[in-house]
Amino acid sequence: MSQPTNPVKVIIADDHQLFVEGIISMFATENSVQFIAKTYSGEELLKKIVNTKPDVILLDIKMPGLDGVTVLKQIKEKYSAIKVIMLSTYSDFQTIHNCVKNGADGYLFKNASFDELRNAILGVKNNLTFFPMELDSVDPDKAKFEFYAKTYNITKKEFDILQLIKEGYTNQKISETLFRSVFTVETHRKNIIQKLHLKTSGALTKFLMENNF
């Protein structure tokens, strides 16, 4: 990969100060990458982008206030040319896939090596993408079910019903599709709402849309 004539301008956003300082110090003698700013919150990052105009942003997923995915969405809506690499300790498919769907150009685990991070920064600047290799070999529906089963104790039958609810099926239509009584479908729906810590069917629909189910 050829090095750019001018260094790639980078902002790092992470609420762990020691991690941020460590990353910046790693690149202290690296001429191809220049850290032009550091932030510890999503709100602060969005303000700094206006004046600093970075080429690449290293963005933590889990931060107080605005989370990384929400910030990612806003960046891609307002500054589509800026490349964003998500940094996280989360390795589950659903989290990574959610970042991909919202426009991330890369996803690195926080234990990535210097060379991996450097190559990712230079790569996304040249319109390449950097995601975990296992992402392409995973069945999305299976991985999504495993995520909801582990996180919310959702059963396979409840997951099937969730998929139909997302498609706009009524209880009657779900009943006909899955060969279950309407009463059974209604019971499953109530259990799902409870497991997801929601209160109404409307809240359930909103949850599925906001979480890219």
Summarize the structure.
The chain has 213 residues and is an alpha/beta fold. The chain has two domains: 8-137, Rossmann fold (3-Layer(aba) Sandwich); 140-210, Arc Repressor Mutant, subunit A (Orthogonal Bundle), CATH 1.10.10.10. The protein is 51% helix and 13% strand.
Structure report:
51% of the residues lie in helices and 13% in strands. It is built from ten helices and five strands. It is elongated. The protein has two domains: 8-137, Rossmann fold; 140-210, Arc Repressor Mutant, subunit A, CATH 1.10.10. The mean pLDDT is 89. A five-stranded parallel β-sheet has the order 2-1-3-4-5, sandwiched between helices. It is of the alpha/beta class. The longest helix is centred in the last third of the chain and has 14 residues, at 182-195.
User: How do the SSEs run, as a string of H and E?
Assistant: EHEHEHEHEHHHHHH
Number of domains: 2
User: What is the count of β-strands?
Assistant: 5
Distance between the termini: 37 Å
